[in-house]
Amino acid sequence: MICVSISYNDYDKCLKTLHNAEMAEIRADLCELSETEIASLIKGTRGNVIITCRIAGTSIKKAKSMLCAGINAGAGYVDIETEAPDEFVSEIRGLAAAKGCRLIISHHDFEKTPSLTDMEEIARDCLSKGAEIIKIVTTANNTEEAVRTLALYKSKNLKDMLSGCGKNKNAGLVAFSMGEKGKFTRYTSLLMGSPFSYAAPEEGKNTAPGQFTRKQLENLFKEGKFVFKHPVIKNKVSIPSSKSIAQRAIVASALAKGVSLLKNYSPCGDSEAALNLIKSLGCEIKKEGSSEKDKYTITIQSPGATKLQAGETLFTGESGFLTRLIIPVACALYGKPVSINGTGSLKNRKLEETSDALRNAGVKFTCDSDHLPFKILSGITNNEISLNGRSSSQIISGFLYAMPLLGSGSVIRVKNASSLPYIFMTLSVLKKYGIIFGDTETSEVLNKIKKGLDIKISGKGKYEPCNIFLETDWSSAACFTVAQAISKSLNMPSFIIEGLTDDKTQADGAILDVIKACGPELKNFNFDATDCPDLFPALTVLACFCHGKSRIKGVDRLYEKESNRAEAIYTEFTALGADIDIKDDIMYIKGGELHGGNVHCHNDHRMAMSLITASCFINEPVYLDNIYCINKSFASFLDNFLILRNKTTKQK
């Protein structure tokens, strides 16, 4: 149930909001209303009204008079904070009991999220004060802390407390986190058993940080317009080529004077954005092939790096990688100001590591709090650049592309390198286009990056045209390899995945190692996904159907994807019945049967694909809000299902 928190100073506004709400909380400490007006608001309601008056915001005398007025008028609940004096609590508790008003004892931490043990002790304290509803509200500084608060709903210690506390054994729990990092818990708490969650009546009238409006929270519970009811995967599955390799090859082809050929190309949002970008720079693009098989040969004719003509703005679509790749390249090529901009979820992604890298390179630029658009005002002026790769390897790839274009030699030094297989992919593609770093092998260059050693780069590097075959994309194949393993373990009809190759440059090929470790019976697994974070959604599906508790390391790499993937995975798979926890960069998933439900894709292609994959093994319908975000990487994903007539339908 959604409880609208009312703080208007106008009686009529309060009354209108109260009558339109299924449940409401009157914040008497924030409303400048008299006791008579408070009582008048509550009289005639159905009892779904909480009367609250925070002592910290007023006085004990006023709080007592307001709460008593509300209780006597027929409020269904009264909320007292844990800091209230014992005598105050005792008096209000007695009146509430006499009037049939349920007592909420609430604890608020406006700075942090305590440990689970400390929160359990807070709950014990609430019960000792006579709470019929325990309310624990923390401040989350990250997703892990927010998840810790939600862990109260699964706490065995708390359940034991409630079962042994006499008349309060039916006490309810309301637990969530404040702040933007904890905002999702206000919704997820309802999925986990909270009797109600608080919302603002409108924008600007929130009574706590991170509060949804009532309309926003209601929209989260609306059934998605796409329903998947146990969809069936076709006998043969076709996987597209790697967009990661394609984007690297497309940009390298633009920097190479002459004609390059990209074979086995599969269109998707990110790769098409790269083609559109280099076309805007003056490259000629020719596409040949079969739309039926969705595989093409792309011919790219480029005038060469020095003759690429940039307009005022370079558009990178919704691709984070293309953005991080092209920004350093633009810095190396152009002396005039140029803006880099994108669209969709990319506009909301913070590119802090990109800003830091540009500053280290001596680039003058402007941006809005590390978000697009970036306006490049000057080129690279530092020949020795230190890059931090902790949160992303993509900006490292960008500078590996850019530095050979400078007029003199330079040095790159990488600290905290992550996603090393993707850096290896960059080095491998660059080598095909004639860019090498000294006389060392690609693997040796990667090892230097891993150890934080200097990478020496010759100036005036020349990109050479290349004919390249684009390997099948293991990122796209991950959900189907997982579905194949689950199907076999459940003795369901299996299927063939066509065209997979053992490509060691793709980090996500590690999915096969995980499946092999699980065995045919799907035992639980431990896997470090730090270098291949895109596997997390598919691995979550696998873990849900494994026996026992699986561990996936690398949660810190999920916060700045198309969505906050740690938050998205926790919320949406919890909605389907999964048992998930997050601690110290590790996601723990306990295998068990999933059920149907209403879930959200978060405009994230990998979330959409993983949720659709999970629906293949769920008997009840799974409702999704928007599945077309899959076009970003795998436009033909749904073509691999027997769908849209009787198995999967789009609601009118």
Give descriptors for this structure.
652 residues, alpha/beta, eight-stranded parallel sheet, elongated
Radius of gyration: 28 Å
Instruction: Describe the sheet with the most strands.
Output: 8 strands, parallel
Quickly count the helices: 21
Mean pLDDT: 92
- CA-based shape: elongated
What does this protein structure show overall?
It is a single chain. With 652 residues, the chain is an alpha/beta fold. It has 21 helices and 31 strands. The strands form eight sheets. An eight-stranded parallel sheet has the order 7-6-5-4-3-2-1-8.
Helices and strands, with pairings:
Layout lengths: L1 E5 L4 H10 L2 E5 L7 H8 L6 E4 L7 H14 L3 E5 L4 H14 L2 E7 L7 H13 L4 E7 L3 H8 L5 H8 L8 E7 L4 H9 L5 E3 L14 H7 L5 E3 L3 E2 L2 E3 L4 H13 L2 E8 L3 H12 L3 E7 L4 E8 L10 E3 L4 H14 L4 E4 L10 H9 L4 E4 L2 E6 L7 E5 L5 H9 L7 E6 L4 H13 L9 H10 L3 E3 L9 E3 L4 H16 L6 E3 L12 H8 L7 E3 L7 H9 L4 E5 L11 H11 L3 E5 L2 E5 L6 E3 L5 H11 L6 E3 L16 E2 L5 E3 L2
Parallel strand pairs: 1-2, 1-8, 2-3, 3-4, 4-5, 5-6, 6-7, 11-23, 12-22, 15-16, 19-20, 24-25, 28-29
Antiparallel strand pairs: 9-29, 9-31, 10-30, 12-14, 13-14, 16-18, 17-18, 20-21, 25-27, 26-27
Explain briefly what this protein structure is:
With 652 residues, this protein is an alpha/beta fold.
